[in-house]
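Continuing the batch. This is chain 6 of the set; chains 1 through 5 are on the previous pages. Same settings as before, nothing changed between runs. Recording input and output for traceability.
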Amino acid sequence: MTSTDLLSLPYRPCVGIMLLNHENKVWIGRRIPKWEGDGKNSLWQMPQGGIDEGEEPAIAALRELKEETGTANAKIIYESQHWYSYDLPRHALINTALKGKYRGQTQRWFLMRFTGSDDEFTLAPPDGELPEFDDWKWVDLSKLCDLVVPFKRDVYTQVVREFEPIIERL
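Output for chain 6:
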């Protein structure tokens, strides 16, 4: 696939979730690698996933949170004002990331407050699908962007910039 071919692919519509606990720490999961060279040690990310056809982004965000973390105990505080996009690395596209149909993802982000207890988190989806994560932790907002895979860092930086003033008022 040539660079021109890659650029002609669309972005997959998705949602992302910044889940905060009562200390305003952010939930991140360690992604299970999906392709060779997939970020090596920087596989941490916030929950995210695709929007089903006809589904509203807020509904998709709550569904993805449940699917990826095992909990539905969260309330939406804020929805990003923008869609944020990133391109997958070329080697990932060649190796069938997103089934080779998309060049990357465009995401609507949601800031949510976790209202449950940590023992609710389970990383094994109930429907028998493969889990997205093999570990999780709460991190300070200031450390978040340093932990994610490099090709997502710009989006995370923009989301943090948008959400930080809201978090400071909580």
